[in-house]
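ok so I'm stuck.
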Amino acid sequence: MKFNFDQIPWPAVWDASLDTLIMLCVSLALSIPIGLIIGILIFLTSPGQFWEQAWVNRILSFVVNVTRSVPFIIMLIALLPLTRLLVGTTIGVKGTIPPLVIAAAPFFARMTEIALREVDHGVVEAAHAMGTPRYLIIWRVLLREARMGLVAGITLTAVNLVSYTAMSGVVGGGGLGDLAIRYGYQRFKPDTMIVTVVLLVVLVQVLQSGGDRLVRHLSRKQFK
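replied:
not stuck anymore, here's the structure
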């Protein structure tokens, strides 16, 4: 098989790369606060915590588990009516944001819960014994102590979102995934497919490396 990189539509590659970055940044910016709030609520309403509410915890956990268990490509198709209702379209960057957020927010919510569970319970009890208000315990104790786990969770969420944006190309979602399907698959241009795959791999590596460095920095800062 002969590859001709001179025939690669570089302007389209650039536009697709920009669309992927837009989808990643916007969906991540929306998913993180939503997932953080849900994760905090799941943790604080669990048994033994100061907002213990069994029925709230079960409902939130059920919603998160169900959402995370559905493959993204199926969710993407199933949410087409809701996406059209929310943003008026189901294609392009705009039509991909809602399903990306709905898929990523529950994932980060679970990562948030895991990070909070790793916080030393004695630190929380000490803050509570000192009369610290609960909202300050959440902000200055729980989230502060769990920041390394939260950064790792954000990194994993971002990496997952890259793969989700690629899958969205199946329904015309735009980005590198859409370019790979339209040019690499439908027009039999394997050179374009290779370029898109390389760009996605590079993006994932950059995100993972940046997240790992930040975690190491926070780790050194915590134990100084």
